[in-house]
Amino acid sequence: MHLMNAKRSRLVIIDFQARLMPAIHDGPRLVANAGKLVAAARLLDVPIVMTEQNPAGLGTTVPELAEAAPAIAKMSFDSCGAPDFIDAIAGDEDLILCGCEAHVCVGQTALSLLENKRRVLVVQDAVGSRTPENKEAALRRLERSGAEIVTTEMVVFEWLRTAEHPQFRPAARLIK
């Protein structure tokens, strides 16, 4: 394990969709934290990849995050089942995952990425499920499988590394 590095990271936003979010436990807080990650990624030039599960059925990405990146539509729960997703994450960057649902699309995506020897970090305060039990079970399983469980603040401050970073003030304001 090593510190996250903005130059070696890619933020992956999975299925924060309008019709799904009202059913997600603590949804508004999760969306707000994902928004902080997006803003920090933009400040620090971290590439962003975003998916939408069955957008015809579940709607498009919530307005707060819709501008983060062009969404990759998928029908498979595992984002790796979408060829456009595989193309978008080509390389060896650390993959910072947030989204819904922790025990379905986020979980299956993380497990596939781990099988393919990618470093996966799941942002626990920016992933959700309909029930806390499903989220907790997913996070335990993912951690046992090799994913690192982190928080929004851990990501932002590891990307910055120092209070002398030129983007420190605007990035730190995102957290307060």
Automatic annotation (TrEMBL):
Protein name: Nicotinamidase-related amidase
Stored Gene3D superfamilies: Isochorismatase-like
InterPro entries: Isochorismatase-like_dom (IPR000868), Isochorismatase-like_sf (IPR036380), Isochorismatase_domain (IPR050993)
Ranges of residues in domain Isochorismatase-like: 11-153
Signal sequence segment: none
Naturally occurring in which organism (per UniProt): Bosea lupini
